[in-house]
## 1
Amino acid sequence: MLKGRNYIDPEDLSLEELDELFDLGKEIVKNEKDFIHVCDGKILATLFYEPSTRTRFSFEAAMLRLGGGVIGFSEPGSSSVAKGETLADTLRTVSCYSDIIAMRHPKEGAPQYGHNACTVPLINAGDGGHQHPTQTLTDLFTILSAKGKFDGMTIGLCGDLKFGRTVHSLIKAMSRYSNNKFVLISPDELKVPNYIKEQVLDKKSIPYTEVERLEDVIDDLDVLYMTRVQKERFFNEADYVRLKDSYVLDLEKLKNAKKDLAILHPLPRVNEIAVEVDDDPRAWYFRQVKNGMYIRMALIAKLLGVK
Ligand code: CP
């Protein structure tokens, strides 16, 4: 039963609950018109303390397509945050006006800290370089669409594996399924943090390798998850400039890839996937964008407990 719960960490949902959510997501994709009134009279608040296109718009589109309404801010400076209001007071206040809240915050752990002040379900829409659980739902739903399963795959994650919160959440999520192995492709400075390796991969004895060259491993992959170098999380510009062009996936590199490889990217992209790849049938990232809206529709409906 998901009604009334928060969704802050990818592991807040059991595998059975995830299956239920994906089943509902599939039903919404198939019969969207059957869901256009399920959230009549309900209000979603989107509190975005950091920039976003996909996450905020997909949450808002999801609620509107379910018949509900939307309030919120994308510029915290336009709210009483600018006058020094605490996160807890903001969440408690917005709980009075809304039925469910989606919040993106630059501080890692902000939703864990803030949820006690919230009297309605709180969804983590990304906290610093930590987690992005609804992107993970989007990624899982897309992997299910592309591969029809979650297990027995070789999953390559490429780019900024240090600051990329979607990477951390996806490793956590895919580690819950059997017989997956990970290939972690990054420059030395942008490797997956040790706490993910120790607390997730090593703890569960999940096989993984760390390499620097995508070309050396691309032929082995079933899923390739490309990521952007996260400029906003670097402490100095020079490091960003040195590392920003580390990887560019183009059709030449894809020549050695499997015919049924699924290429995902949480987006936005900068230049790490050449535009020429967009029309390749293995490119799933724009279908992934749409899946993000459908799975957020399913999540909102489940957390609100609407039929
Ligand atoms: N994937 C993602 O989180 O995109 P936005 O930053 O545009 O929301």
Note: The pocket of phosphoric acid mono(formamide)ester is lined by residues 52-55, 126, 135, 266-268 (CB under 6 Å).
## 2
Amino acid sequence: MLIVMEKDATASEIQTVVDVIESKSCVARPIPGGDRVSIGILHNKGSLDPSSFLGLAGVKDAIPVSRPYKLVCREFQKEDTLITVGDVTIGNGHFVIMAGPCAVESEKQALTIAEHVQRAGAQIFRGGAFKPRSSPYSFQGLGEAGLKILSKVRAVTGMPVVTEVMDEESFDLVEAYADIIQIGTRNMQNFSLLRRSGRSRKPIFLKRGLAATVEEWLMAAEYILEQGNSQVILCERGVRTFVHHSRNTLDLSAVPVVHKESHLPIFIDPSHAAGRRDQVIPLSRAAAAVGAHGLMVEVHHRPEEALSDGAQSLYPDQFAQLCRQANTIYETINHNGSL
Ligand code: PEP
Ligand code: MN
């Protein structure tokens, strides 16, 4: 249930509502809004009676929340969540493009690619320092040395950086260097990692599990919000199906579903969805048209030499084309007021 306070509710009226919630062995989560405070009720065992709150001073409304992902759902928060990272705001009607190599391979490689993608229009740099690979014999990433390179990229270009955390063990380290912390598809239901992310003050980029329903994905996000971190960006990156013409199947229909169900921003990763370069630009155009808030794209200046995911990495000139086309589509639709 969500308790909506009157605009002029006093601090002591808010505290009384919190006390009543706690007296019922529930957790109260005050959410300061633009012009009024709302208080979420978490951990209630059964359904609550709205009338036990409606009579309290300063209470405007008591709204039952029907979804299991309470903090994540639209019923709980009508306005879109905006996330600010450096100079970049995510979720406010601008299409944000994150781009970079699959893995950070060297300082020269990262800086070269960063320069290309920034010139083309990327606002956030991506690059893995800890890589989740199917084979233990494949390149596992540079680890902390890779994180240091990402710091260098940020210092040189001014772009915030997003990089993946793979386990709780390395969380503190990744958190110290990253501007946005990525949780990969294979970890979407690593609940202890989700809880640790919820205690971070950095935004979390939560990829959809490759066999997860939208509901399971939103519940994964709920783990993060439940621990106090409301800065979550969802990312659809393709789900596993029976097809062989792409690495995964990009589920674009997840975008309108997430818009309806949640206030969190949603991105599309066409690179891991497709697994092959020739599909990345068309899928990016579709992502802009369907209303995603942004893209995460893999780019390499020498993809044939890339230590991971070269086949799906765009050449810099292709990436520039992608930015032009996706931004044009997004702006056209937005300016027509259709989004
Ligand atoms: C990545 O973005 O580097 C990555 C490994 O993606 P995913 O978790 O979607 O496979
Ligand atoms: Mn990759």
Note: The CA atoms of residues 166 and 187 lie 7 Å apart.
